[in-house]
UniProtKB/TrEMBL annotation:
GO terms, molecular function: 2 iron, 2 sulfur cluster binding; metal ion binding
Domain Rieske: 15-69
Protein name: Rieske domain-containing protein
Statement: the UniProt record of this protein carries the keyword Flavoprotein: no
Membrane-crossing segments per the record: none
Keywords: 2Fe-2S, Iron, Iron-sulfur, Metal-binding
Pfam families reported for this sequence: Rieske
InterPro entries to which the protein is assigned, alphabetical: Rieske_2Fe-2S, Rieske_2Fe-2S_sf
Gene3D superfamilies per UniProt: Rieske [2Fe-2S] iron-sulphur domain (2.102.10.10)
Residues in coiled coil: none
Origin: domain of life: Eukaryota
Length: 69
């Protein structure tokens, strides 16, 4: 049984997309993972993977603007 403050990782999916050094700071890249678009963003050395399309309008986020990068 997990402690209260531990994240639920029961549905965690790990997928290797490439080397982190291939995505410079401030850049983003779209991938297709198991049939879904995923946008990976390098924000000051931290990599984040988010859904690749806007949940409201279903537009690709790859060319979108971010306040943090």
């Amino acid at each position: 049984m997990a402690a209260v403050d531990e994240p639920d990782t029961s549905s965690l999916v790990i997928e290797v997309l490439g080397k982190s050094s291939d995505l410079p700071t401030g850049k983003k890249k779209m991938y297709i993972v198991r049939g879904k678009s995923v946008l990976v963003v390098n924000d000051n050395g931290y990599l984040y993977a988010i859904t690749g399309n806007c949940p409201h309008y279903n537009f690709p986020l790859e060319n979108g603007y971010s306040n943090s990068i």
